[in-house]
Amino acid sequence: MVYPRERIVGILTGLEDLPTISAVVAEVNRIVADPESSAADLGDIISRDQSLTARLLRLANSAVFARRGGISKITDAIVALGFTRVRSAVLACAVRDALDVQADPPLVQAIWRHALVTASTARRISEVTGLRDPEEVFVAGLLHDVGRLAFLMICPEPYRGCLGSVTPSRSLYDVERETLGITHAELGSRLLMRWNLPLSITIAAAGHHQPERGHEHSLLMSLVSVSNEAANRAGVFAGDPYPRELPWNRLSELLPLRESDLDRVIGTAKEELGSAEAFLGSLAAPA
Ligand SMILES: [Fe+2]
Ligand SMILES: [Fe+2]
Predict the structure, then answer these.
(1) How far is the CA of 142 from the centre of ligand 2 (A)?
(2) CA dihedral defined by 241, 89, 30, 84, rounded to 10 degrees?
(3) Is the pLDDT of residue 3 over 80?
(4) pLDDT by residue (tens digit) across 221-236?
(5) What is the CA(78)–ligand 1 centre distance, in A?
(6) Residue 21: what pLDDT?
(7) From CA 121, how far away is CA 110, in angstroms rounded?
(8) Cβ atoms within 10 A of the Cβ of 119, count?
């Protein structure tokens, strides 16, 4: 028998062996943060990477962003998508490449779909309420369950065993903690820290199942948490058909939303499914 303590050591060692994300992410962040930079500057960096260029063109021409006549130049794609969306898309491509999970493609697809619906829902809430920068919230939503992909990279068989142990009264989150000794929230936040992503994004991943009050990043954590909840209640699961529900009174303590708003947020999550699918299709590396 493998005891949880040995398991945790094995998992954390496996985490150290995971690839880092592409250096292009840092370069794109630098250019997007510079108010003097232009679409041509950003295009210069991106066009050095053929696979990334092809994926961004595919995204700009997808059902969500397509302009008449089609887009064939990277600078036009950047203008159509906007700088911050390009930054999120580059990060998503880099994470997808770093966590190239071979085990269980339908599960991996479900996790990404859930991540994108959570991210888009969080962005829509932020756009409407002005609570936080919509693109920061999108990235936090996109990466909140990255620990699940890390588990599938590090220990695919034990993790699929966990999925098989899920019941209506025992969520995957609980099974992870009891069986592997560490949850995807903790593992994901460690991975994001290792990738040098902003602390706010790391903390949102760590706390999305138990958002805390009075924390510097409570609002971001809560926005991700309520969007995660909405994605689940819209039936867009991250592999777990019985996710732990967060009590409404907990969420309403954290966010200025009424209980009647939750139905609207779930509706938003359903509406975002189409664009999430388009985004997801664009992320795959070209053959
Ligand atoms: Fe989660
Ligand atoms: Fe989630």
Answers:
(1) 9
(2) -90
(3) no
(4) 999 999 999 999 999 9
(5) 31
(6) 95
(7) 16
(8) 28
Ordered by start, the domain boundaries in the chain are 19-98, 101-287
Bridge partners (DSSP) of residue 167 are 170
> How much distance in Å is there from the Cα of 74 to the middle of ligand 1?
34
Q: Of the bound ligands, which one is closest to the alpha carbon of residue 187?
A: 1
Closest CA to 89 of 108, 110, 107, 62: 62
Q: Does domain 101-287 have CATH number 3.40.50.620?
A: no
What is the CA(94)–ligand 1 centre distance, in A?
20
- Quote the ligand 1 centre to 144 CA distance (angstroms): 6
Q: What CA–CA distance (Å, rounded) separates 139 from 46?
A: 19
**How many Å lie between the centroid of ligand 2 and the Cα of residue 145?**
5
The predicted pLDDT at position 258 comes to 81
Which tens digit of pLDDT belongs to each residue from 167-219?
999 999 999 999 999 999 999 999 999 999 999 999 999 999 988 877 889 89
Phi, psi of 65 (to 5 degrees): -115, -5
pTM above 0.90, yes or no: yes
The answer to whether residues 167 and 226 touch, using CB atoms and an 8 Å cutoff, is: no
What Cα–Cα distance (Å) separates residue 103 from each residue in 153, 160, 164?
Answer: 8, 9, 15
Burial level of 196, CB count in 10 A (0-12/13-18/19+)? Answer: exposed
Q: Distance, CA 282 to ligand 1 centroid (Å)? A: 24
CB 100 within 8 A of CB 92: no
**Amino acid symbol at 125:** I
Proportion of the chain in helix, strand, coil states, percent, rounded to 5 = 70, 0, 30
Which one of the ligands is nearest to 210 CA?
A: 1
- Phi/psi for 269 (5° steps) reads -60, -40
The pLDDT, as a whole number, for residue 66 is 65
Ligand 2 centroid to Cα of residue 36, in Å, is 37
Q: What are phi and psi of 85, to 5 degrees?
A: -70, -35
Ligand whose nearest atom lies closest to the CA of 188: 1
